[in-house]
Design a protein that fits this description.
It is a single chain. The chain is an all-beta fold. The protein has 2 domains: about 55 residues, no CATH class; about 70 residues, no CATH class. Helices cover about 0% and strands about 55% of the residues. The chain is built from no helices and 15 strands. The strands form 2 sheets. Strands 1-2-3-4-5-6-7-8-9-10-11-12-13 form a 13-stranded antiparallel beta sheet, with no helix packed on it. The two termini are about 20 Å apart. InterPro entries: TEN-like_YD-shell (IPR056823), Teneurin (IPR051216). Pfam families: TEN_YD-shell. Keywords: Disulfide bond, EGF-like domain, Repeat.
Amino acid sequence: AHPSTNEIYVFNRHGHHIETRDMMTGNVLYSFTYSKNTSVGRLSQVTDSANNKMVFFRDYRSAVSHIENSLGEKFPVHIGRLGLMTQFSGRSGRNWDFSYDGDTGLLKSTTLPGRLTTVYEYDSSGRVVAVLAPTGARTTIQSWMAEAGTSSG
């Protein structure tokens, strides 16, 4: 459960996240479908409460190769050697690029169409502490560990 968002996360016996429910109403907000109902099942579809779907197509290595939306549009995705998405290709060949720290796997930067790059900085625990926008504006993020969990401000 996540009290600040009023969400309950439901997992199957294999540890896969299968639903996100509204804590107050019990309604399903998101449902997740996997390729197999086993521990090796891969995420294949996400459906929201309005029945919008995202379908994940995989290649021979089981890496996501395309994402299809509810309109039937398929968008290519490139998964790098670390198993992380390095590029998403949108409409009209517009690409979003993602780079990661080789040691931690944390997202280092995102580059949007038009080559606008955002850079992320982390503390030693892997929490974002600063975001450097394409404009040069730097936003710092502070967090405090509380007894009942983590809060950010």
